[in-house]
Design brief:
With about 60 residues, this protein is an alpha+beta fold. The protein has one helix at about 45-64; strands at about 5-10, 20, 30-35, 45. It has one domain (about 20-64). It has a four-stranded antiparallel β-sheet.
């Protein structure tokens, strides 16, 4: 059995699940809704997840 450690955003309000949560597995990048932890967990490849993170960071820099 593999133990998975989920991480919340450092910008989460600390309200017990206001953000998406991520974890890392070999070659995969699972996500889950912090408000619905028992719901489905979409899984993306590492390359797709890297493109997503880069896109979010680029959008965030546009807001500064």
């Amino acid at each position: 059995m593999i133990r998975i450690w989920w991480k919340s955003s450092s910008r989460s309000a600390g309200n017990g699940g206001g953000c998406a949560e991520i974890t890392s597995l070999p070659g995969r990048f699972p996500l889950r809704d912090g408000k619905n932890r028992c719901g489905g967990h979409p899984v993306a490849s590492r390359s797709l997840s890297s493109m997503f993170i880069e896109s979010v960071e680029a959008d965030a820099s546009d807001l500064r």
